[in-house]
Amino acid sequence: MRRHPYRRTALRLLSVPTASLLVLLPGGGAAPAAPPPGAGAEFPRTVIDALLEDPRTAGARTAVVVRDADTGAVLYDRSGRDHLTPAQTLMIATSAAALERLGPRHEAQAPYRWRTEVVETGGATPGTVDLVLRGHGDPTTTVSDYRDLAEQVADVGITTVTGDLVIASGAFGSLFSPDRYGTGWTVDDLGTPSGAPVSELTLSPDPVPGEGGVRYLTNTVRLTVEAGVDGWSPPTVTIHPASPAVPVDPRAITSSETRTVTYRNPGDGTLVVDGWMAPGADPVVTHLPVPDPHRHVGEVFAAALTDAGVEVLGDLRVDEEVHGYLDPVADHSSPPITEMARHLLRHPNAPHAEAWLRSLGREHTGVGTAEQGLTVMAGALADLGLAEPIPRQADGSGLSRDNLVEAHGLTDVLLGVRDAFWYPAWRDALPTACAADGALAERLCEGPAAGVTRAVPGELPGVEGLVGYTTDAGGRELAFAVLLNGVREQDAAREVVDSLVTALAGGGTTPPKPDPGKPGKPGGPGGPREAEAVSHTPTVRITAARPVRRGER
């Protein structure tokens, strides 16, 4: 297949020169030292085998596939056809499918942008006109964007809205499913920014410079707890963006120590601030999801209209059923999807991934549900030359425990995207090892993987993964997928994953030694073992990628 002339825009970084490295294996053996860059390093199969026998990950299910990114040749395969939970590494497939379907697929096609609009329509009361705010899932809208929309409304000469301010929550082609959360998400997820509800209209706190790059935490508020000025003054609590739709229960007291606890009440969505705080203590800042994103957006937009000099005589209401002629008044567009990919992937962001998935469904079927998005996604991946790489998929973010993937299938995605017109932008959006901005900023910094590894990490309780590209000591680009399920020690599993990728980049590394008191034995954890064969007997594959329905396991 002829490759697109712009496909190689993403530069191949040179690996870091390393001194000769002696690799000690459990049992006293030694592997040859890694050759200098360009010398054609031997693939570190024995080193990887030893790393995967780390006793700290004993009992975990492991799948590792490594392939030559240019030829597709399989260089290493351990349980690559087994079905494992991917966590956020699933966003590799979701983002690729969205770019393939939403564009740009060639130079003449404009990249997709999410739109937020203000329109007028006849009010419920004769002789009145409602002002309607409707969105299409832009996960990066902020207070300043809604203020700009309000200024546009004022600029066209509207000073009074005789009807209601209507927040459209799904009337236009059933934009998104009424279920705001993914199948297989847990109660614990719903109290974190990753588990924020999915909505057509969203609101993120304004990004703060210096927080590891620009991050849009969709449908959350930034909650700041500041100490009282003396022992008699209670701590103060502020939220941004503030609105009456986000109730706060400040219970924290002033004390000689500081220990605050913030959480969202799973019952009514109230944000609770508990604990105690010493006078003069540093502020405590956290982000929590809002209980009702449409009401929250409505309150913020209503305040922006007031500040712009626009008076609303009617009520603020959230409505799915908005009918009649719609007269455009104002609009806002997101950055192009190729730029938005950075916000999705640099810090894997579940609400963004869910918006991308539902937008796939809406743009191609008129129905913005996860189920329709998954159907469109399967077709997009097929267009990239992939045949059913996802055995079972429940969401777009990987937050669901119902997802099952094959490590081999994820490497299929990594290979299949390389001829796409949008590939350079997508690759550039992946987190880079030891770069200042991204989820790998503090990972893979010690060794040859730093700067040459671009990959999406995945982490759920008991799950660790890393999927992406690296360059070995001979200058060969590798596509890899590493998945661990059922791990007991999360940090230890992450160390094993990072050591494995370091070995890929440098041609070898020193594996962890067995824990004291847990001596290795042939064929057991921490002991020498025969190298795994390149291919293993595959498990039976599910023949159709489809969404998981409630009650189905």
TrEMBL record:
InterPro entries per record: Beta-lactam/transpept-like (IPR012338), Peptidase_S13 (IPR000667)
Main EC class the enzyme belongs to: hydrolase
Taxonomy of the source species: Bacteria, Bacillati, Actinomycetota, Actinomycetes, Kitasatosporales
Entry protein name: D-alanyl-D-alanine carboxypeptidase/D-alanyl-D-alanine-endopeptidase
Signal peptide: 1-33
UniProt keyword Mitochondrion present: no
Name of one Pfam family that matches: Peptidase_S13
UniProt-recorded Gene Ontology molecular function terms: serine-type D-Ala-D-Ala carboxypeptidase activity
Keyword Chaperone: no
Protein family: Belongs to the peptidase S13 family.
Keywords from the named record: Carboxypeptidase, Hydrolase, Protease, Signal
EC number, as in UniProt: 3.4.16.4
GO biological process: peptidoglycan metabolic process; proteolysis
Organism of derivation: Streptomyces alkaliphilus
Region (Disordered): 504-553
The organism's place on the tree of life at top rank: Bacteria
